[in-house]
Amino acid sequence: MARKSFQDLVELMKRLRAPGGCPWDREQKYSDLKPYVIEEAYEVVDAIDRDDRESLKEEIGDLLLEAVFLAEIAREEGSFEIDDSITAIHDKLVRRHPHVFGDTKAESADAVVTNWERLKDAERKKEDKSVLSGVPQSLPAMLKALRLTDKAARVGFDWRKTEDVFEKLEEEVGELKEAIAGRDPKEIESELGDLLFTLANVARRLKVNPEEALQATNRKFTDRFHAIEAELRAAGRTFDDASLEEMDAMWDRAKERE
């Protein structure tokens, strides 16, 4: 099969959306595509985590399709075209890489990040935007907490020492226990949110991405739980006739095999 270009994909989407094209594609709106954009982005991440190049190749294509799909809807309504999106990111990359396309010096990756944030800050001030602008509302909550507090920290709104964050963490645990004792569901939810938010700050101070850390633990839990299921199945048993103590022992055996 002949290789296709980016423009081939753009033209294909135009054909699918045109009269006589695909009924499903033609009726899609921006809001209809939101879950697909999120799903495809996560599938790209999943392929990276699995170090699966073949899947990554396919998932990048799927994610690219959503970008082309959205841009085609915009073209039809006269807002912009995909080339405008490409121009916007091209110009932004040139503007924010003065150490490549200008006279600014940046001898390390950290220096590049510092320059990048300085330029973003200048753009934000020029447009009179909040320091927290640019953090998508639809980000997963833990990742969003990380991004929000990182932006605030860059302008000096942060704990002086990591130890101070741990003190705050202990304070939030105490407040959650008080809320649980008070049996107020809304207060419990609020205090649990405060605790999770503080944990995101702990992760940021330790230079750990809390979303990735939790995903790694999710995978670890899944693998160990699957091991329990396999051991029960091999013995001709089910969860109904296994005690918690037996399952804990199976969990420990799965942990030892890792």
Features:
Helix Hairpins, 0% strand, 258 residues, mainly alpha
Question: If you had to describe this structure to a student in words, what would you say it looks like?
Answer:
This protein has 258 residues and is mostly helical. The protein folds into four domains: 7-92, Orthogonal Bundle (Helix Hairpins); 96-129, no CATH class; 135-208, MazG-like (Helix Hairpins); 212-257. Helices cover 75% and strands 0% of the residues. It has twelve helices and no strands. It has helices at residues 6-17, 23-27, 30-49, 53-77, 82-95, 98-101, 109-126, 141-154, 162-182, 185-205, 210-234, 244-257. The longest helix has 25 residues, at 53-77. The chain is extended. The model has no long low-confidence stretch (mean pLDDT 93).
Concise synopsis of the structure shown:
The chain is an all-alpha fold. The protein has helices at residues 6-17, 23-27, 30-49, 53-77, 82-95, 98-101, 109-126, 141-154, 162-182, 185-205, 210-234, 244-257.
Q: CATH superfamily name of the largest domain?
A: MazG-like
Largest sheet: none
* Sequence of secondary-structure elements: HHHHHHHHHHHH
Given as residue ranges, the uncertain stretches (5+ residues, pLDDT < 50) are none
The CATH topology name of the largest domain reads: Helix Hairpins
Q: How many structural domains can be distinguished in the coordinates? A: 4
The level-1 CATH class of the largest domain: Mainly Alpha
Q: Portion of residues in helices?
A: over 70%
Please give the alpha-carbon distance between the first and last residues.
43 Å
Average pLDDT works out at 93
- How would the global form be characterised? extended
Which percent range describes the beta-strand content? under 5%
What is the name of the CATH architecture of the largest domain? Answer: Orthogonal Bundle
Supply the helix-strand structural class. Answer: mainly alpha
The overall strand count is 0
Q: Note the total helix count.
A: 12
Radius of gyration: 25 Å
